[in-house]
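Handoff note, outgoing to incoming analyst
You'll be picking up this chain. Sequence as last confirmed:
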Amino acid sequence: MLYFDQFALRQILPHRTHNAIQAHCRKLGFGKRYQRWGPLERQKLRKMYPEATREDICAAFPNIDWLNIQAVARYYGYRRKKKPYKLTGIAANDQARIRCYEIGWIMRDLDEESGTGRYFQTRGHKSKYPNFRAINRAVMALGGYLEVRWNDQ
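Most recent structure output, in case you need it:
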């Protein structure tokens, strides 16, 4: 991509503004080209952006960089769907995290409603020794209860 010497052009054309010089140079093929997003492209992006993979979106818009697609999506207010929380391997904790994802809570909301300080925000997902008292309070705040079942054989 060729670039133009802005300083030299400003000296030659003192009566033209900076933006006018840039626009004319773009028209001549120098500098960055702007992608015009029509209503059909915006609608296509709005439908694909929340759930489609990055590769699918880039394939749908072949001549546009991913960063430019993200910038357009931010401009129009399109958001990616939030990823589910990581599972810990502790059944009670995992079910509480899944329930929070379903109702749209973040771990801060869970800590505030259950009164567990910052347990779920900081160490609740990677604790080697889980705090079942905090998990029980969180499950109760979510409207459930913990239950133990024994296998009688």
